[in-house]
Amino acid sequence: MYLPKTKMARREAIEGLLFILPWLVGYLIFRLGPLLASFYLSFTNYGGTGTPKWIGVGNYGYMFSEDPRFWDSVRSTLTFVVGFLPLSLVIGLGIALLMNQKVRGILLFRGIYYLPAVTTGVAVALLWQFVFHKQYGVLSGILGWFGVPQIGWLVDPNVVMYAFILMALWGIGGTMIVYLAGLQAIPSELYEAATIDGANSLQRFWTVTLPLLTPVIFFNLVTGLIAAFQIFENAYIMTGGGPNYATYFFGLNIYFTAFRSLRFGYASTIAYILFVLIAALTLFVMGTSRRWVYYAGEKE
Amino acid sequence: MNRYRNSGGVSRRSFLQLSAATGFFVGAGALLSSCVPAAAPGGQAGAGGVTLRFVTNHGESDVPLFKQVIETFMQANPEITIDHLDVAGNEFYDTINAQGVAQQLPDVWYTRTFDIPVYASKGWTTNLQALVDRDSAEVRVDDFWPAQVAQMRWNNELYALPYDFSNVGIYYNKKMFDEVGMAYPSETWTWPDLVEIALNFVQKDSSGQFTRWGLQFFNWNWVFHGLLMGWGGKIFTDDLSECIIDSPENRECFDFFIAARQQGLYPAAGAAPAGVDPFASGLLPMAFQGSWATTSMRSNIGDKFDFDCAPMPLSPAGKSCINAAGGAWGIATNTQNLEAAWKFVKFLTSTESTNTLISEPLRSIPGRKSSVPLWNETAAQGGLPPASVQVFPAQMDGANAAPFPPYWQDYSNAWNNLIAPMLDGVVTDGPDIVLPMFQQEVNRLIAQSNV
Predict the structure, then answer these.
(1) Sheet of B168-173, strand order
(2) Angstroms from B90 CA to nearest CA on chain A
(3) With contact defined as beta carbons under 8 Å apart, do B353 and B142 qualify?
(4) Could you give the CA distance from residue B145 to residue B363 in angstroms, rounded to a whole number?
(5) Residue ranges with strand state E in B77-167
(6) What is A68-292's CATH topology?
């Protein structure tokens, strides 16, 4: 453990601790406490009343071997993550590149693209219900011009996931803004040097932009991964997990199990599996980052 | 000049000392508060008085009505103060469930009949049977609807007293009926009669796609249970330990509605326009709607057309297809003022309060029969449609009382995911495939809830 040696350093350390004390107290009481409590509850059959009864790994065994809804959650959440995340990274970057152009009115365009990221969830969900309506929706109307038959975007179990991915992509303004900040931090001298060396725009993108953006891509990948696994609001409002459990994402399963069915012990088990899944994938991504994330100025 | 002094004149030392003190007191206070037992719900209201926490799940338009009832009660009982909170929408359930787990439930709160077994089985609501027996002359259980009394029981004991009761009938557009020359529905019509009438209104476009249907239909499970019972089916065993929905009678009932939907009785999911009420806008001639909808129907339809309502059709065998559900008042087991809470619940459920809350503003069917004359009188005021609105309280007498099990939320979740898509035409699988699957799922959930 590091202990400051001088009086001044010790004083600085104490002052620093005092500054973070309110956060630390809040974290211990409102984060770490419930985190540990729910870990304990995941080994019990706690149903909201009485004393939780210890059942060992009973919940975990039941979840993996007997609960088809758990596997529905795994399937639907992973499908969403795999479908949404790569697209959000690529499309977000594409839009950011466009928004980085020096054209008249670019601030307005940036505002327009960022707007969906700050609109409220419920309003957006209701808006999309109109867009996705099978017979009278905007999307069906547009696709109808090209002879595409009506699609039950939100009512067909085979299609509903595409609708959720589309909806999520609409709100990638946050990803775009981070990319944009990254793009604007790339020194223009590098582009000038590449141009002098005869690089065309595609080569400049591959040899300058992309390598220098890898920390930003890494950031968007990790935060996007965590957020995508926690998808909840749109499914709660628009489909309730259906049809046929096709959108029974982890978040929804945990919510229904805990706050509707009042099986807090089992809900904690599902929540911990989600936590482990997110943590494992995040660590995996972080582990691979040394191979593909380039930090300017970092020693080899 | 002291380099630590900031522009505001507060030294860094003072700032840190203040921060440390604040942090200490906040932290210590929070830690200590988590170590001591939670403050008891309810409490003293001045000398010798008590305060009751009262939570409803209604909405802005009903809050003034509750305020009126509460003021009347507090004037008559100055020693009791009512602290009212209305939590609208699904947030209500989050609030109640969180408070239930924390043993911090309000003294009195709104509980739907399908929630009564949920709360009673968890020990959250007080068994009122002894109090009802003690004050039977005041409570007058025989003034409640038998079906609701059955639904307010858990293990044969009363756990709530009624607020309102709801059932479903058929609203119909008289103008559209006149246009196609159809006779209005009779009081004794059956579902096959309704389908026969409805098909006269069905229209398709050149591609064979329906553009008009005969009925606005909802697949609410508690209402559909009445249909299943009318067809002679059962949903659960008598002790609620098993789901037995996969029976020939129930398959026949589901087959009937699926076949009728395929003929155009009601729109499949995503087929009707979104964001408009297809009955109120004059697109559909009939609506399968609740007793609670009369007021909104009047304001939505206005003078666009004349409409009326008919009783829920009987099953092909002539049995009632009515199942009902209602609102009621429960008392928390964690209340420290049981007698005061009981006094308030008795007042809430009295004819006087029911008149104020239900009959005068024309909400759903009053929970007390003695309030029905005023409800009928209010409904008839101004000669507004539907003229036959009294069919709703009238069909209460023969209503089925489908049981609501303690695993109702799980059951509803499974219904919405498996049964509703079948009824709405989202999946092509019929009852022969879906019902065994649904039954298996519900029985799995029952087994899990018993662990």
Answers:
(1) B286-290, B168-173, B307-310
(2) 10
(3) no
(4) 16
(5) 80-86, 108-112, 153-154, 157-158, 161-166
(6) MetI-like fold (1.10.3720)
The ranges assigned to domains in chain B are: 43-166+325-383, 168-321+387-449
* Complete DSSP assignment for A103-131: -TTHHHHHHHHHHHHHS-HHHHHHHHHHH
Q: Residue A242: CB partners within 8 Å, gap ≥ 6? A: A157, A248, B416, B417, B420, B421
Q: Does A49 sit within 8 Å of B123, measured CB to CB? A: yes
Q: How far is CA B408 from CA B56, B89, B384, in A?
A: 20, 18, 38
Task: Determine, for residues B413 and A49 on separate chains, whether the beta-carbon distance falls below 8 Å.
Answer: no
- Separation of alpha carbons B190 and B285, rounded Å: 17
Q: Which chain A residues are closer than 8 Å to B438 by Cβ?
A: none
Q: Which residues of B313-346 are buried (b: 16+ CB within 10 A; e: fewer)?
A: bbbeeebbbbbbbbbbbbbbbbbebbebbbbbbb
Given a contact cutoff of 8 angstroms between Cβ atoms, the answer to whether A141 and A60 are in contact is no
Structure tokens at A140: 């069906």
**Whether the domain at B43-166+325-383 and the domain at B168-321+387-449 fall into the same CATH topology:** yes
Per-residue pLDDT of chain A (300 residues; tens, 9 = 90+): 566 778 888 899 899 999 999 999 999 999 999 999 999 999 999 988 888 999 999 999 999 999 999 999 999 999 999 999 999 999 999 999 999 988 888 899 899 888 888 887 778 888 888 888 887 888 988 998 988 888 888 888 899 999 999 999 998 899 999 999 999 999 999 999 999 999 998 999 999 999 999 999 999 999 999 999 999 988 998 888 988 899 999 999 999 999 888 899 999 999 999 999 999 999 999 999 988 888 876 655
Q: How far A10 CA lies from chain B's nearest CA (Å)?
A: 14
Structure tokens at B29: 């206070």
B95 and chain A in contact, CB less than 8 A: no
Specify the 3-state DSSP secondary structure of B323: strand
CA angle (A135, B208, B252) in 5-degree steps: 90
- The Cα–Cα gap between B371 and B353 comes to 9
Alpha carbon distance B397, A118 (integer Å): 53
Domain boundaries, chain A: 68-292
Query: Token match 């911090």: residue?
Result: B104
| Beta partners for residue B166, in sequence order | B325
Q: Rounded to an integer, what distance in angstroms lies between the CA atom of residue B227 and that of residue A48?
A: 34
DSSP per residue over A148-180, as a string? PPP--TTT-TTTHHHHHHHHHHHTTHHHHHHHH
Cis peptide bond prior to B386, omega within 30° of 0: yes
Distance from C-alpha of B103 to C-alpha of B97, rounded to nearest angstrom: 10
Residues A78/A278, Cβ–Cβ less than 8 Å? no
Q: Closest residue of A to B20, CA-based?
A: A18
Residues in B 249-308 with any Cβ partner in A closer than 8 A = 269-275
- Fold annotation for B168-321+387-449: D-Maltodextrin-Binding Protein; domain 2 (3.40.190)
Q: Is A276 helix (H, G, I), strand (E, B) or coil?
A: helix
The answer to whether A131 touches A137, Cβ cutoff 8 Å, is yes
Residues 6+ apart with CB under 8 A from B308: B171, B172, B174, B184, B385, B386, B387, B388
Residue in chain A nearest B415 by alpha carbon = A244
Per DSSP, chain A holds a count of helices (H) and strands (E) of 15, 0
Pick the CATH number of B43-166+325-383 from 3.90.1150.10, 2.40.160.20, 3.30.450.40, 3.40.190.10: 3.40.190.10
Secondary structure class of B107 (helix, strand, coil): coil
